[in-house]
Amino acid sequence: MPTTRRHMFQLALSALILFIAGCGGLQEVWEGPGARMFRPQAIAVLPPMASQYDSAREDIQDVLSGALNKVASIERVVSPESVTDIFQASKEAFDSLVFYFSRLEMTGQSDKESAIKLGKALNVDSFIVVRVNSWEYIRKEGDNVGRVGLSLRLIDATTGTTVWKARHEKSSSYMFYRPNLKDLAKDLAGEMIASMPPQAKR
Could you tell me the residue range of the domain that residue 40 belongs to? Predict the structure, then answer.
């Protein structure tokens, strides 16, 4: 009986792994309880959180906004330029952003009050939090490699809760000509946003 139980557990575990792999194939994916019912109408990409890859921030906001524009159920994607303008024009909005990021760094959780303030400032019902994990050319196992890695969180700006989060990366090996990192980022953003609820595309 213990052997049979162990075998059943292994089968269930294998099925779970296959299910996770089939749902986007990303390195890490997590969905909140209400993720499949979440249907944001307006969304913004926040400026990427501070990292050693700050030079990539504008490109990342641009490619993620482009990927979100292909989601049919989202009626409005706030442009990166408009997001920047809002934070430059409003001290209250900027302070909310700084506080939100600091709480996220300290606790790993979305601060509900400042998230709701950000949603109101940006006039959206959801936003994406971005961390750039890699944006570089490296040597890996004897090959030259271009690599881009991102962590994303989808936040319900009406409640401040995390709906979905994921982490993934794309890499391309080369001999003489370096791959364009922004092109890699476009592929990565498209793949990650495709696994984000809702699923419908334009």
Answer: 27-194
